[in-house]
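Handout, page 2. Input:
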Amino acid sequence: MIAPSISVSPDSPFVHRWDPRLKLIGLLLLAFTFSFVSNLRVLPVMIALTLTVVAMSRYPLDLLLRRLRYPSLVILGLIIVLPLISGFTPLVEWGGLTVTREGLQAALLVATRFFCIVTLAAVLLGTTPLLRTVKAMQALGLPYVMADMALLVVRYLEVLSADLRRMRIAMRLRGHVEQRRPWRNLRTLAWLTGSLILRGYERSQGVYNAMRLRGYGHAPVRPGEFTATRVDLLALAAVCAAAGLLIWLELTL
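Output:
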């Protein structure tokens, strides 16, 4: 997923202007708290918190749905299979298939946690420029090697995507016709993937050598680059309180 360019101005919603270090801590804390929820009666509170974050960030709904499209495919199989293979209390029986209450509850729990956590991740990445997010991670102690790797991976996903587009256009201009059945294109796709990997490897060597020749180093994050205001700290305190409320509900309901 390539993050679009994001502009942050004084008129932007607060979530966009929130100190990236505190936003990172707050949303990650909330996401980790979501992952520990196992009580179905806590799910409405979890959904309400997620929707509140989305509403405060004014994250476009159509963009959010597009961001959730491909991750949803990963979880879809699990949601379908769980009610059929898990649990022992039958709810519906049809054609030899039995939908169990425990399996249905587990699927509901997994799906809600998954979508809430992915939504928080989309808000986090969609409201702060990626470079600033990585710098915030460095300011919080992320090793420079990991920060550089994250930036290069994101940058070269775009480059590889552009290369793939150009190679497919070149193949079509040379008379290649893509079959509707994917398995008939497997050999061509294998050649295409191999060429793409080799080109990427050669480019990475060239880029690394060029960076070294230009004095590539690891400058520390400048002190004062991030400044947390009182409002930023209050927002983090509110998120911590929300996480605490979820834990309390999980333990008492």
